[in-house]
Amino acid sequence: MGLPVASARVVRFGVFEADLKACELRKHGFRLKLAEQPFQVLALLLERPGEIVTREELRSRLWAGDTFVDFDHGLNNAVMRVREVLLDSSEHPRYVETVPRRGYRFVAPVEQAALSPISSVTSDAGESSSTSATSPTSSSSSSHASVRTWWEPAARRWLTMPRVAVLFVVLLGSVAGALLAFTFRVNHSATPTTALEHSTSLVVLPLENLSGEKDQDYFADGMTDELIANLAKIRSLRIVSRSTAMAYKGTRKPLSEIARELNVDAVVEGTVMRVGNRVRITAELVQVSTDHHLWADTYESQMGDVLALQNRVSSAIVNEIRINLTPEERERLAKAPAVSPEAYENYLKGLYYWNKRSDENLAKAIGYFERAVRLDPRYALAYAGLSDCYAIISAEIFGTMPASEAAPKAKAAALHALELDPTMAQAQTSLATVKFNYDWDWSGASEGFERAIGLNPSYATAYQRYSLYLIAMGRAQDSFTQIQKARQLDPLSISINFSLGWRLYMARQYDRAIVQLKDTLEMDPTYELPHLVIGQAYEQKGDFELAIPELKKAVELSHGTPLMVSALAHAYARSGNRKEAENLLAELQAKSKTEYVSPYYFAIVSIGLGKNDQALDWLERAFADRSNGLVFLKMEPELDALRTNPRFITLQQKLGFPTA
Fold this sequence. Notes:
single chain; alpha+beta; Arc Repressor Mutant, subunit A; Rossmann fold; 5-stranded antiparallel beta sheet; 10% strand; disordered N terminus
């Protein structure tokens, strides 16, 4: 690496350059806001790249001997500020490495650089990172006044941690406003180097938790989720969905590589850092084709009146995006419902566990969402999350709660969410799911999914659920169209990639299903559902030697859920191993004495054993239970042995599937 000497004027590293004489740090030519003391820490590290600079050396250089100051606290704060502005991490350092009990080392390659002027396009993207692109109002400006004083010792105050939640609203306002500001410039500016020519797609990378506390990951992840969800309300933008964005958590790929993989024009990235009871959030927007920094800003403040903060952000958003939005979009984005910080905190925890999708984690998510709505009965998003949890915990894929218990709760929560916010695509999707899974209101479900997609065309889950409805109705090609739309929005979602394979299986395209599901397992070999359906596909092809190991793997990974056990028992029975099938049936019967096991699973085992009348008895009990498995009666290959039976035909008629 090139080693700059102390007299070097400009030092370059990565996309940054530091003017040591002017005490300025720039990224992509934009001046970044960095106070004098943190800059001097950075400058000293840059003078000796690759070497350890001890804490005592930093003290003697930056703090005079007769200065009365908490040196350790001051240095820690200065280093954290340097890392924050560089989007660096103490755990995975790209630039500043901590050498325990000794000091710090600058680990990135550095070189002397020719003097480069400050970019002349700063007036397009904001004068600098110290001036927000979403600060046209006096209220927004006042929020920045607190930013400039936070790190001064006189300004430190003790606060309660749950209040940190509301700061995200400020971040959301700035990113949404800045994003739409540059979208407007795309359509109206004659300067192609300062704006995207086709600003139609972006990804919000996971906000990095710089607090050093792993138990705060849910907070950073939750803010990422909400930022994605809110930006996705803008129909003119394609926003990469949550599952795909989170796949890049902790990676150090260049932004250009990520953008190429996801086929997006711009990237939002940022950090969340907590010091004591304070939080600082930094975000930036980068045009990837030119590696051009369009906007960046930092927010730091004590957590105050949630409603006042949200109202100020709403005003800033409306002022920035009025020209670019439809009236309906403007109304949705301008809403600032009052949400208590404690309720928001519980909502983020519920969202964290919901995204893990297991019986145990769904139960935890329900607990947090219920706590959120108790704390704030007008919190629409928390009701939508609660509805989603109840809607799938009793579905065939989990089946750990009777539909008679879960379905009314799922429906009530979805309706309550829509009473509070009729424009919420998540709640519309949740309600349509209940109508499909348990009400068997086929037209109502279809209309609900279409309404959700109309409200938020970037909501991948709405396409995924609509695809599920369509395959159940026997409309395979339409189902494939919808699931491919979901994959375009969320290409790295394991759930959506599994869904495509499962739809292929239901359409009896077994070879294609196996290929797709094996591709899904490359993303996560421990995901039990692809093993299940691969095994079922091999079984339908008559290849039991390949089917049974896959089904045994699914049982093992799921810790013996009834869905997996019944599928394995069915395969054993069809392969001629009735003894193993009977043993597994006995296991299900024993389990049913202590917990709920859907009658649908017993029907599947009975079909494998050739006990068709017994299977129909179980299916009729499943009908009485409103078991979710019955919605696939028209398509499920495992039910083929019953299709000519008059009792089965009568049962299918009772479900009232559409004829067209």
